[in-house]
What we know:
13 helices, 12 strands
Amino acid sequence: MKPVGPSIPxxxxxxxxxxxxxxxxxxxxxxxxxxxxxxxxxxxxxQRIEALYETLRxxxxxxxxxxxxxxxxxYAKRKDGRYIFLNRGMELLCNVTREQCLGRTDFDVxxxxxxxxxxxxxxAAMRTGxxxxxxxMSKTPAGDRLLLSKKVPLISDAGEVxxxxxxxxxxxxxxxxxxxxxxxxETLQRxxxxxxxxxxxATASIAHEVxxxxxxxxxxxxxxxxxxxxxxxxxxxxxxILNGIITDCHHASExxxxxxxxxxxxxxxxxxxxxxxxxRGVLQSLHGQLRDHGVATETELASDLPLIEGHQGQLxxxxxxxxxxxIDAMATTTDKARLLRVSTQPRDRNTxxxxxxxxxxGIDSGRLNNIFDAFVTTKANGMGLGLAICRMIVQRHGxxxxxxxxxxxxxxxxxxxxxxxxxxxQARNVSH
Length: 432
């Protein structure tokens, strides 16, 4: 008579003991046989039974070895959820024993929330009658672990679902690895995008920065032609215009040098720099624009300002941009004087401060934190690259660039630079 449902599998010792008992019964029956022919037939049947047993024993041993040495958690349950088998892998993973589980349900062994998810997935697999996969949580001595559980219903010869068999694999570390790889890919993608942005910014910055001295050269050239047409020509004015053109040509060359130096891994062109000299030179080169825009200038350049170790062309570009931006900022100012103030001063023994202030409309406080980002601009037709490049230059020199404004009465942009460890007297001779 076949059992109604799956029975609890026998262990290897139980299997051997059961066979020995049956063998003793067969021996007793054989002893009772009197006919030689019947005894011979019985011996033949015994031999076939023993051959079948040996095959079954080897298969049972192989299956037992595989199940017990599997790293996965393998188990079988009746339809009502009672365990009829679990391997060593499940004992280790779930911190349970066979004695705790066999004949009991998940609700007898595990916390309620764990048992509910196990039972829900068991019922779903038995309802569909097919292999199902689900992710389940398990509480272990090592903490919560994520399991990938594959469950298949146990079906009788009559086609009735009698239970469930499952294999659960710990995928916690795999998920962590997948997450780490995904984050690494995202990081690489961001770095790639940033590099592309830097290339675009560098290209656009060259065009942006060179356009200023080229525009000044073109303006000077037109003015020169106009003065040549005068009778007699104003030679002093022409001389001043030509000197301005020469200065702007040098400025354009410095732009290329400074931007090129920004993207080198090693900059060998640093030397002692007098920031006061840079400020005076910038104001002199922009004298025409300051005059044309009606901007008055004030300077407060510290006489005892120490030299810094840096790239003169790049730092000149920073001061030039800040002054030029201040001139542009005051273009719409009509209700008060247009005043530009440039100052330098030691902040402490190790740093100096360079500041450019204007009397324009100021910068909205909500925009102060991002005006140094690439492609952010306060100008109607600006490209938003000048201040981004300025910040890069200042940071390359170990300094900081910042801005302050109340949004109504002008703005102050300043940068702080560390003082270079140079011989001041000797360095001033070199710089001149």
